[in-house]
Write the structure tokens for this entry.
Amino acid sequence: MAKAKNARVRIILESTEGTGYRYTAMKNKRNQPQRVEHKKYDPVAKKHVIFKETK
């Protein structure tokens, strides 16, 4: 029996402040086909900023 393809993929979230800080996260490709944005803490900038998914 063949395995089902996994819908969850690992993504990289990069800071929009230009500090180069990155987070890794998981997302479901079926539920969120577009690129995601999260507001998270950037320790280099020492504040909460928007992190965008990179390719």
Remarks:
- The chain has a mean pLDDT of 93.
- The beta strands are 8-15, 22-28, 37-42, 47-53.
